[in-house]
Amino acid sequence: MDYNALLGILSTAIGTGSFFPYIFDTIKGKIRPHAYSWLVWGFLQAAVFIAQTEKGAGPGSWAIGASSLLCMTIFALSIKRSDRISAIDKASLAAAFAGILLWLATSASLVEVVIASATDIAGFIPTFAQASSKPEEESVKVFAFGALALFISILALKSINPVTVLYPATVCISNTVFVLFVTLKRNAASKRRKQGASKS
To answer: In the 3-class helix/strand/coil scheme, how is 25-66 assigned residue by residue?
Structure first.
């Protein structure tokens, strides 16, 4: 087994394994994923997986392929668990699916991946908005391990070029930013609770 295949298996195992605690916590009601984000990510990652495979990504595409299936699983579980849908959520979903349609209508590979990366970020907006007000209802582990898995998947790519690298790099960075964002929000909320307790 070659170097790329080993890294591909490792990245897929880390990425896939991180989803199961998240799925179980969703079923138990411990966390409340935003359905819109996971719907966008599921469709988008399936499309990117196909595009990467066609461009010779090899084992480096496996993690995204597996992730697309698990994103759709979380979407199905979160439909009745998401908060009330806001205007921002609807606008983000519309922008994300407009991006997907534009991606499908584009023939230039690099342009496709740029659109896909921007669409993924648009899909993140509802989750950021929900975590901003209720950081305790989101888990950072799946995003942290997802970022790690995508970083490894980049190393596993057999063909290194902007088309194969840009999307996983974008998701890796956005996941990392989200982890930091939620951690800061939780710390701020914890400080407020402690200050309130000390005053009382």
So the answer is: HHHHCCCCCCHHHHHHHHHHHHHHHHHHHHCCCHHHHHHHHH
Tally of CB atoms within 10 A around 39: 22
Question: Could you give the C-alpha distances from 43 to 36, 40, 48, 171, 175, in angstroms and in order?
Answer: 11, 5, 9, 14, 18
pLDDT top residue among 48 and 65: 65
Residue 193 sits at the vertex; the CA angle it makes with 188 and 197, to the nearest 5 degrees, is 150
- CA atoms of 67 and 102, how far apart (whole Å): 22
| Domain boundary assignment for the chain | 3-199
Confidence of residue 198 (pLDDT cuts 50, 70, 90): low
Give the whole-angstrom CA distance, residue 88 versus residue 26.
Answer: 23
CA distances to 21, 74, 94, 169, 175 from 27, in Å: 10, 9, 27, 30, 22
pLDDT in tens, 2-20: 888 888 899 899 989 999 9
Please, are residues 103 and 116 in contact by the beta-carbon 8 Å criterion? yes
pTM: 0.84
